Amino acid sequence: MSALLSVTDAHVAYGKVEAVRSVSLEVGTNEIVTIVGANGAGKTTLLSAIMGILPLKGRVTFAGQDLARLDIEDRVAMGLGLVPEHRELFVTMNVEDNLELGAFRIERSRARSSIERIYALFPRLKERRKQLAGTLSGGEQQMLAMGRALMGEPKLLMLDEPSLGLAPIIVADIFRIVTELRASGVSVLLVEQNAQAALKIADQAYVMELGEFVLSGKASDIAANERVAASYLGFQHEGTSVL
Amino acid sequence: MNTTIMLFLVQDGITNGAIYALLGLALVLVFAVTRVILIPQGEFVTYGALTYASLAAGQMPGTAKLALALGIGAFAFDLFVARRALHARLVVRSFITNIVLPSIVLALTLYFAAQKPPVPVCIALSLVIVAMIGLYLYRIAFQPLAHTSVLVLLIASVGVHLALQGLGLLFFGAEGQRGPAVLSGAFTAGALRFTGQSITVYAITIAFIVALWLFFGLTLYGKALRATAVNRLGARLAGIRTTLSGQIAFLLASVIGALSGIMIVPITTLYYDSGFLIGLKGFVAAIIGGLVSYPLTAAAALVVGIVEAFSSFYASNYKEVIVFMLLIPVLLLRSLAAPAVEEEKD
């Protein structure tokens, strides 16, 4: 079976500076794929380009269709979702409105039932349904951003640093939910600095350094790789621990 | 000055202020959603007013033809943008909204203009014509620039204003016009005399503000518009097209402009270029509201209206100067409150 998302020889540049060079990756159905790498490796840039926020040279297909001529909104309607690093919530609107707008392209009747599913997944959001998004804690905002993206019924959800700046207990919660998503049929492309946690739940993994993939394979193999362990899992080099 | 005159001036000020409030709200809305400072708002006022007055006088307004011409332009833009992937559905939809709709309205206008139609028909036709002009203008002049800076959008906005004003002279001539009152008759309450027209202004303004409030608070499209204003990228990631939000904002602004014009033209003679100054007073209110706050804008518009009424009584030569001077203390206060000049992020 062909991959759900397939990126071939992608280049992304900011002016003359190439932030992503010749990157190829695949995400299958019902799969969690993670991209790990240090800050500034180009992970966020790659996700933004796949979503259509930044121009990408190369070929991206999703569910068998070439994305080249499609706007962000069209990609959303096709079932590609992104939870960006900065979450981009509607801060002056309440939780429920944020979720409702996540289903802007979905039939009204279906949207109403999916909002209950989101509340079941994130009970905290249900408690705060009338609260303004801007007044939520960091963890709750992350949950809301994920909930809003899920309201659009994505086939593939791309998560950019979902654990950044959150308390460990909330991080565990979010990673648990990511695995639940896979069980419910949503594929996940996860970009993380928290390599250990990401590799633990992922099926496939790519290691990114200075805009290029330097390693790829099964997540368990990558986690066992000595070089990865040294650079990203916080063993040996005490000073550069990312955990 | 006795109380009768004072009450009279306040009443006059509130009537004008109500209209400035509507215009100010439209400006805030358009700016928040599209970042366009809508200078041509005043032309929507003139076009609405003079189209209405022309129709009521049994003349054919040129604006109906302009709507069709702009529609053809908008259709061409749609085709050009979609040239590499022409879907039949997209072409048909664009053809209906940009060509069929203005053609039908033009036909109706031609038919009705010949026989001095009743007031409600004049109002409906004027509103639809100006609404279409607003919608197509967005497609032609602003949508292709949507990703550029506020300054570029402002320059485009000034260009559109000048073009529309010139066309207004062509369509309506240099002579001023007045239209028939929407509601005739009057009654007195104490020292005050209320005309049917001023009651209409209050009622329509209040109804429109309530309707806008409901639209933004309760409907999905209203919320989508707010979402675009709060976070453009977030809205796009939710699948909300920035162009759709822009279209709705321009549609609302042009309807509000035309409606204001239709309400004013029975009270004051309007010329092809009168709209600019009226729009500018709505703009003063919008600036006082910081281009973001709807309630503050509405309140400021009432103040603008009342200041205008009093200054036209005491120093009518300086009426406009005094109104625009209201901006100076506001801008001073605002610059003291936020001294740093904000760089545009996108």
UniProtKB/TrEMBL annotation, chain A:
Residues annotated as domain ABC transporter: 5-235
Highest taxon of source: Bacteria
One example GO MF annotation: ATP binding
Family annotation (InterPro entries): AAA+_ATPase, ABC_transporter-like_ATP-bd, ABC_transporter-like_CS, BCAA_Transport_ATP-bd_LivF, P-loop_NTPase
Keyword Cell membrane appears in the UniProt entry: no
CDD domains: ABC_TM1139_LivF_branched
Pfam families: ABC_tran (PF00005)
Keywords: Amino-acid transport, ATP-binding, Nucleotide-binding, Transport
Gene3D superfamilies named in the record: P-loop containing nucleotide triphosphate hydrolases
Residue ranges crossing the lipid bilayer per the database entry: none
Main function: Involved in beta-(1-->2)glucan export. Transmembrane domains (TMD) form a pore in the inner membrane and the ATP-binding domain (NBD) is responsible for energy generation.
Family (UniProt): Belongs to the ABC transporter superfamily.
Name listed for the protein in its UniProt record: ABC transporter ATP-binding protein
Organism: Bradyrhizobium vignae
Automatic annotation (TrEMBL), chain B:
GO cellular component, one term: plasma membrane
Family designation: Belongs to the binding-protein-dependent transport system permease family. LivHM subfamily.
PANTHER family: ABC TRANSPORTER PERMEASE PROTEIN, BRANCHED-CHAIN AMINO ACID TRANSPORT SYSTEM PERMEASE PROTEIN LIVH
Keywords: Amino-acid transport, Cell membrane, Membrane, Transmembrane, Transmembrane helix, Transport
Name of the protein in its database record: Branched-chain amino acid ABC transporter permease
Membrane topology reported for the UniProt record: Multi-pass membrane protein
TM annotation in the entry: 17-37, 66-83, 90-112, 118-138, 150-174, 199-222, 248-271, 283-309, 321-341
Major localization listed first in the record, in broad terms: membrane
One GO term of the biological process aspect: amino acid transport
Top-level taxon of origin: Bacteria
Matches recorded under InterPro entries: ABC_transp_permease, BCAA_transport_permease
Cellular compartment(s): Cell membrane
GO MF term set: transmembrane transporter activity
